[in-house]
Amino acid sequence: MLMLMMYTTLFCFMATFSSQDTVTITLNQSLQFSDTLVSLDGTFEAGFFNFENSRHQYFGIWYKRISARTVVWVANRDVPVQNSTAVLKLTDQGNIVILDGSRGRVWSSNSSRIAVKPVMQLLKTGNLVVKDGEGTKNILWQSFDYPGNTFLPGMKLRSNLVTGPYNYLTSWRDTEDPAQGEFSYRIDIRGLPQLVTAKGATIWYRAGSWNGYLFTGVSWQRMHRFLNFSFESTDKEVSYEYETWNSSILTRTVLLSTGSSERSLWSDETQSWRTIATRPVDECEYYAVCGVNSNCNINDFPICKCLQGFIPKFQAKWDSSDWSGGCVRRIKLSCHGGDGFVKYSGMKLPDTSSSWFNKSLSLEECKTLCLRNCSCTAYANLDIRDGGSGCLLWFDNIVDMRNHTDRGQEIYIRLDISELCIFCSNSIACIISLILQKYIMLCWE
Fold it and tell me: N or C, which terminus of the chain has less Cβ within 10 Å?
């Protein structure tokens, strides 16, 4: 009966309906506390709500068919209305505004484009949009461009390479306060773009850089079973999104107030959210937990080891499990034909914020290019599809590398040739090969 009354109120209130996507409100119509806007397929609902034991009113979006309200977006997250007399309106300029009881403006979408015939719709993706005309695809403003703590299928995280990051998740302060918290989930555009979670300006943990399939630190085997990920990079913008293979699947990624992120699936059988992935997954996930020039392996004890050819910078601290000082080279690089590389397989690639990349070079050309630059310390394929392609170079220290949890990829770490001879265990064939390599590089120079 209550549901029937809600729909009756809503249907009497709305002037028009979209033939394909959503219920629609038009110029100067408004939503009050008891009114809701519903997507045409009935998946999402938008309206005013409050948390238990609080009079603060927020306008948000949640899953309509899930009885325990699961909020995925909040408009006035930092400026709640203090009573139940809040109103949401669509202005003649195409802006969504929230007014308090005295009709003071609390929040506005602040669209930079002026609409001729603005309409507001809630799409079946959970995206609240303002269009110029009901049947048009000309979107003037959308909530997906201003995400909160929830990453939904079809939503894009974007970073502008000209003006810097402008579209990313931010955590809530706590479970009943949607105001912006201290954690962000975003694309870092320094060097090769990578997906990171930061606490303020400090990286907390990384999903890593894109390898053609997924981010290098993410479990590939599980996620590709029901999700399709895409990553686009141009000279102006980098963007990342995902879709479900089956539209009936309800999934979301939430950045929690603690800094952790959770991907969950809705189970009709248990009528609850089932967490299928959590980050950080273990201690090796935390950024640079082993310091520089080291590797973290959660299956080793201790979990931190210096890379081959490196030793702890502060041995006593390292022995007491204080790895913050990291590792330094035992023998400095020769830089003039006297260096080689040791291969690590099954790795999450290190921090790429100080890297350089090229999409057209082969792996062998990548190696040669690295050897010709004295500050280059490692190289790898940029894209691992179809046998691998492209070139990715690191400079100076190697930071935040670990053994991957399931698949990983190969990376080549630069060492002085005498270090490589040690690792060859005095094998004559190995030493001859390294001498020939040195000779070839000297001829190249």
Answer: N
